[in-house]
Design brief:
The structure is a homodimer. Chain A is an alpha/beta fold. Chain A is about 45% helix and about 15% strand. Chain A is built from 14 helices and 10 strands. In chain A, helix 3 crosses helix 5 (about 80-95), helix 5 (about 80-95) packs parallel to helix 6 and helix 12 (about 260-275) crosses helix 13 (about 285-295). The radius of gyration of chain A is 18 Å and the shape is globular. The interface of A and B includes residues 46 and 318 of A.
Chain lengths: ~325, ~325
């Protein structure tokens, strides 16, 4: 049976609302609106607790199975933002969290995850070894596994962004969402929810770093394609392969999907910092990079660029500024 | 005759509204609210064109005397933000702008001002030499002089922030405003406007860097006091002496005024960048520094910290991060 994504997103909203009582800000960008001749809005998921939208799926995943989570703990793997989000949500809900991180994870990300009370287990260096470690630990401990992008609860948690955007822009306003993507959780949650409301009124466009581009390559190939280890300045977008669920939802519900260059991501990052005065991480800037790339023309006049995260390493910004 | 500051602010709003159609965002800060037990909001003047609230007084000053400005040009002096704001407003309105800047002004600030079409005249290194140069040029050219903080048009332009806050928070909500201050233009504009509406419902608290502290020292002395050349990380707040008008308004309408240390400003800057994901300059962070200093307790539960500017030099942020 196909899940009813609108109902699932509404359920998720009810669950997470007590913990995230306010919608993240939606700011109109005067410079981007002027540049494009459209009405460009920025959705500041960077201002969520732990600095990324990931608290939505983390909370929904735990709350959907709270008794089980309390008994057996939760288990996941993440390159950074989902790790902190799960640690934060678990701490809040009195649940033990164990996070599998690759050996080459930046030390400050490990520290932040531990500072939120989570146990960190290292698991080699590949995207695959992360999931193997999760499987092993699941067997050993029986913990509740939270998938960073491909579970129903994760996608539904991400879908709450779509509900918030409708409330903020007015329920009758048609709009285009431009979203960064890695494994495809956020974008498929938004796209599936909006499609369940009214596919004629909403459009979702996706972008990912061309170093990687697992979803774009999978769409071209007509099947999920593994692109191997990904190295991009957008270090939150390093999934080697889209999820099974997310790939199907993207195929069905996204109107366009393209890659952006590292240079374009850097340009978008500088725009956000210097012109918009916002602290955004490179992965979060990929939506604006996509807009500025002109590779896909939005069908609607009102356009929302999701700034998915704000965990910018100041050293990365330094490098980008020096390279100017 | 005492100017009627509410009417003047309303006039200013009418003048500048076509050029600044949207209010700057007012975002609730969850971490600061949690930390203080109050409802803390951040007013993002950092997101104005040219990155600071100064476009309000710049536009109002020129528009109040547009014919004269068009004929004879405008003339001002500024350490940075007012220079860019006047250049931007003048360019928009087809007016020649000449800005007197000290010889030690950061080259990128000079470049940005020139890039907006203004003529830059260098004028020695002291706060006084700036005003002497303006007087000389006024005589030679007959240009319209715009004062950065002490003219009626400037203070009324700054007063539009108060009108915006009332509209954003609801007209019946009592609130406290915490504002950074240098020569006192912004804070006296806000305080005079709110006092003209209802002094019992609003409270304005001011903070400035203790390296400097011209207003605080003047209040203690009971008269305007010149503190000499000011060097602070908050490089937008370097006035040596408050204005005549601003000092009187502050005396009458501010409920408290204190200094904050350089360390406290750095701490506030890091909070804004790392926790709030906002790009704010040190001068703009002085309101949050004041809040975190606990030197003045707001009387109202709803508190607005004005983030007056966002022109943060990345090298300054680098230094602050390294010093941690």
């Amino acid at each position: 049976m196909t899940p009813h994504w609108l109902e699932l997103a509404q359920q998720a909203r009810k669950r997470i609302q007590p913990h995230l009582p306010e919608p993240t800000p939606l700011l109109r960008s005067a410079p981007l609106s002027e540049k494009t001749g459209l009405d460009i809005y920025l959705k500041l998921e960077s201002r969520q607790p732990t600095g990324a939208y990931k608290v939505r799926p983390a909370l929904n995943g735990i709350l959907a199975n709270l008794d089980e989570a309390k008994k057996r703990g939760v288990l996941t793997t993440s390159s950074g933002n989902f790790a902190q989000a799960v640690a934060w949500a678990a701490q809040r809900l009195g649940v033990h969290a164990c996070i599998a991180m690759t050996d080459d994870t930046a030390p400050y990300k490990v520290e932040r995850t531990r500072a939120l009370g989570a146990e960190v287990v290292f698991c080699g260096t590949t995207f695959e070894s992360r999931f193997e470690t999760v499987k092993r630990l699941e067997k050993e401990r029986g913990s509740l596994v939270l998938h960073g992008f491909d579970s129903v609860e994760t996608i539904a948690g991400d879908g709450t962004i779509a509900l918030e955007l409708r409330a903020q822009l007015g329920e009758v306003t048609p709009f285009t969402v431009i979203s960064p993507a890695s494994g495809g959780g956020m974008i498929s949650g938004i796209a599936a929810t909006l499609a369940a409301i009214d596919p004629s009124r909403y459009e979702v466009l996706g972008f990912q770093p061309e170093r990687g581009g697992a979803i774009v390559k999978s769409l071209h190939a007509g099947e999920r394609t593994n692109v191997g280890k990904v190295h991009s300045i957008a270090d939150a977008l390093v999934a080697s392969i889209p999820g099974e669920r997310t790939f199907e939802l993207i195929r069905k519900h996204c109107a366009g999907f393209e890659c952006v260059s590292e240079e374009r991501i850097q340009q978008a990052l500088l725009h956000l910092v210097e012109e918009e005065k916002l602290w955004v991480e490179p992965g979060g800037a990929v939506s604006v990079a996509g807009l500025l790339s002109n590779k896909l023309r939005p069908s609607h006049r009102t356009v929302v660029c999701i700034l998915s995260g704000g965990n910018l390493d100041p050293r990365i910004l330094e490098q980008v500024l020096r390279a100017q």
